[in-house]
């Protein structure tokens, strides 16, 4: 959710979470572009009227960088020219404010449905993470993960070759308001390394100083 009105952004995130989605909010176009291009998200909900980089510019930047994530654009500007500009900028659908929450949820569901069957497994190297059971598999071996281990592993497997910062993992796994510190991330990465080794995974979690973690597979 990319929206500079923090209260509105947070309320939409809350609505999505209550309906079974995982959602996050950022409050400016530049951050929205950066989040979209991590390839960790299935949908971007994008406001138009934002200071700095507005929604049209954000959508164009996302598409210019060859990012194909669906974009649902929200705006109070309901004129035909505005809708055309939004669609030409790269939006997949254009919803005007004020909107009924049922319509928003229907749009979200429709855009996600277009992407095909829901992904229930992440794979890297010889290792698979089952999203429904929280289980890691490698060859014929498997091991269950704790809730936090699962969340950290999923963060890494969603963008395996990209460095994911400790701060980003803290925000996504423990939440923005948590008192958890970077040492918590290090502890759970240690747990995951032991479990990957235990099942014969060829995946290793690599730490890069000041950048975070990424995955490497093979020798």
Please, could you describe this protein's structure?
This protein is of the alpha/beta class. 42% of the residues lie in helices and 19% in strands. It folds into two domains: 6-113, Response regulator (Rossmann fold, 3-Layer(aba) Sandwich); 121-217, Arc Repressor Mutant, subunit A. The termini are far apart. A hairpin with a 2-residue loop joins β6 (135-138) and β7. α2 packs parallel to α3 (55-64), α6 packs across α8 and α7 (166-174) crosses α8. It contains eight helices and nine strands. Strands 4-5-6-7 form a four-stranded antiparallel β-sheet, covered by helices on one side. Strands 1-2-3 form a three-stranded parallel β-sheet, sandwiched between helices. The protein has a two-stranded antiparallel sheet with strand order 8-9.
């Amino acid at each position: 959710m990319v929206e500079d009105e923090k209260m509105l952004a947070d309320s939409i995130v809350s609505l999505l979470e209550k309906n079974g989605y995982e959602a996050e909010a950022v409050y400016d176009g530049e951050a929205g572009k950066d989040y979209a291009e991590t390839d960790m998200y299935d949908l971007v909900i994008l406001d138009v009227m934002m200071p700095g980089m507005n929604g049209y510019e954000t959508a164009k930047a996302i598409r210019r960088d060859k990012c194909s994530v669906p974009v649902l654009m929200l705006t109070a500007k309901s004129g035909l020219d505005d809708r055309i500009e939004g669609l030409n900028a790269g939006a997949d659908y254009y919803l005007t404010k004020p909107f009924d929450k049922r319509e928003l949820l229907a749009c979200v569901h429709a855009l996600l449905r277009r992407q095909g069957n829901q992904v229930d497994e992440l794979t890297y190297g010889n290792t698979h993470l089952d999203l429904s059971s929280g289980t890691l598999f490698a060859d014929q071996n498997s091991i269950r993960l704790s809730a936090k281990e699962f969340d950290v592993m999923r963060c890494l497997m969603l963008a395996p070759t990209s460095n994911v910062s400790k701060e980003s993992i803290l925000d996504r796994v423990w939440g923005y308001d948590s008192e958890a510190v970077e040492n918590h991330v290090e502890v759970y990465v240690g747990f995951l390394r032991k479990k990957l080794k235990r099942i014969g995974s060829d995946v290793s979690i690599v730490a890069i100083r000041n950048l975070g973690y990424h995955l490497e597979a093979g020798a």
